[in-house]
Amino acid sequence: MSGGAEARGGDPRGGLRAEGGTAGLLESLRDGLIVSCQAYPGEPMRDPRTMAQIARAAVVGGAAGVRLQGLDDIRAASDVGVPVVGLWKDGDDDVFITPTLAHAHAVAEAGAHIVAIDGTRRTRPDGLTLAETIAKLKAAHDVLVMADCGSLDDAIAAEAAGADILGTTLSGYTGERPKTAGPDIELIAAVVDSCTRPVVAEGRIHTPADARRAKDAGAFAVCVGTAITHPSTLTSWFVQALGVSQPDDPEPDAPEPDAPRRETPAHEKEN
What we know:
Order of helices and strands: HHEHEHEHEHEHEHEHEHH
Strand order of the largest sheet: 1-2-3-4-5-6-7-8
CATH superfamily: Aldolase class I
Low-confidence stretches: 1-9, 249-255, 264-271
Number of strands: 8
Radius of gyration: 18 Å
Mean pLDDT: 89
Strand content: 5-15%
């Protein structure tokens, strides 16, 4: 699978990587905002062209990078002019963010400069360790790896496994830490203090003040999704503030929009 990009006639990462290599790409994110542009199955905006347009609009607003889910979305946003953090949500297992080496190769081939993968200590579906996955991916592609972690122990292990970037993406979703109302500032600070790799604060960052708190806690960069790119959720916040009843209230146990949901939830998968 790793030779696909070359067979199609060149590396889709192209000019950006050539300008400063992976080190230059990473440095371009320092103190910046990464905007996560994702929609889920059945939502009106679930279209790669739409996600790519949102990504371009985020860049116009000053985003230093964008985060996109799914191969078609990554390909559609290949011309945004900033680093693309790519991932592929798949499967019914606990590990579903770029869960296997094959998924990671595909994300790299689609054009991601940074491949985001599950960076927890949980068993991966293909049986490889995180260290094996990262090593094999980097042997085939000149990309950076962002480990989506859920705890300090995850981050320490991911750094030892070779991850280039440590994200707090899964804080509150793996059972190791409580789900905070806003960003997990305590975890951000702990990872910054304990690890040497750049830390990207991600997860429940809903306001500019939240983003600032994350940066002040030592985050190398801040990633925001729902509060910028999910209009259904943004609209619901205003509706709720006005005390207006909503016609289609979600089920009490439905995941919140900025949770790291599967691309195809188990109950929506076809038999």
